[in-house]
Amino acid sequence: MNLQTVLDLGNTHGPSANATGPAPLRHVLSGSFRSISLFLLAFSPSERTISHLQTVPAYGPHQYLAANQHKNRIYTTSWALPPSLSSWNVEHSDSWRVTHINTVPITATSSYITVPPPYKYAYSMGGPTGEVHHIEPDTGGLEEKVQEILFIPEDELEKADKTRKALRYGSHGIEFTPSGQQAFVPVLGTHTIEMYLRDTNGHLKHVFAATSPRGKDANDGPRHVKIHPNGKILYCVTEHSNYVDAYRIYPTSLEYISSSSLLPPDLADSSETFRGDTLMLSPSTSANPTPKVLIATTRGSTSDIRGWLSIFPLDDDGSFKAPPAEIERYQTPTSGGKANAIDISPKGSFSEDGLWILLTDDDDNTASASGTGAVRVLEWDGWGNGGVKMVAEWPSNADDKPADSQEEIIQGASHAIWLD
């Protein structure tokens, strides 16, 4: 594999190609749980189709993708062994190109990775450890490890499971407040959210552990967190109990506020058959400077149980709107497999309140699907406008790949992100 492979994507998919015609294409990069490659796609809002631009030789299977503020640097976690992180360059031009920058070793397989302001360090977490890596300012590549964080006693690390299996009971993600001074790590095995303060050298210092609001024995499994732009509210999806919990953020602690179920009321007693997954806040725009909704997903525990996407209305301060405020529910086409992850982008001129939602699918039981799409685009145009709808999927049919094609088609999408 040539690590310096440059993917010249041609001149037909750049922003200027659509300047006076239909809405510009929206570019997407996706990982896969069953492929070592990354996949560059283009979504046409006007034609409502997803096209495949390029298969990117990579180091997967990839669990999670994160971008810097310009979305011209991408950082990925991987299930490959030995454990590693990779960095990628994305050129935003008439001729889109993606190049591999570098790959660095880590102690244990990481789940999530993030690059918070001022974009000097990459933070990854997974299983028994977390790591902080310096980012080379010119290339965007990952440099030396500056800190390792342990979630088990140091004398147990040598014998600890460092594969992806440890993600089921170890650390699972990391997010920062907008100031970049506070960081939060959900840990499935201890049912806690660990809080850290960051110093000027990028190092994290542990200051607090928030236990489950339902008690130490609730087996909640905190999995994924996000933080309101006001820096005052943290939201956490619980994998085992299928809640979104909201906490108030203080300088060195968290205080539980309230919870909302990821499941419709008639399934509230069936949480053991679902796996709480990911959550996102609607992006800030000039029309809506503060998030109006929080969107979260849960997967079916088996292929014959379809997952759910829920849209929760938020007050201006970030708290959940009290009943009888509406919660929008959308049953996903499949269980989602190990995915059902989301990324969100405003629809722009298409709708003031509207959102494009990327949804990834890793369900290998295609008989239960409405198609075989591994990456889907959903749309939501705000309350009372018809709910969530699926508008495009890729691949749209198992026969999309020509019999003589050597091009790899995605199998089991993991996480996809909007690049523009």
TrEMBL record:
It holds the Pfam family Lactonase. Keywords: Isomerase. GO terms for molecular function: 6-phosphogluconolactonase activity; isomerase activity. It comes from the Eukaryota. The keyword Ion transport does not apply. InterPro entries: Cycloisomerase_2, Lactonase_7-beta_prop, N2O_reductase_N, WD40/YVTN_repeat-like_dom_sf. The keyword Isomerase applies. Transmembrane segments: none annotated. PANTHER family: 6-PHOSPHOGLUCONOLACTONASE-RELATED (PTHR30344), CYCLASE, PUTATIVE (AFU_ORTHOLOGUE AFUA_6G11580)-RELATED (PTHR30344:SF4). Belongs to the cycloisomerase 2 family. This is Isomerase YbhE.
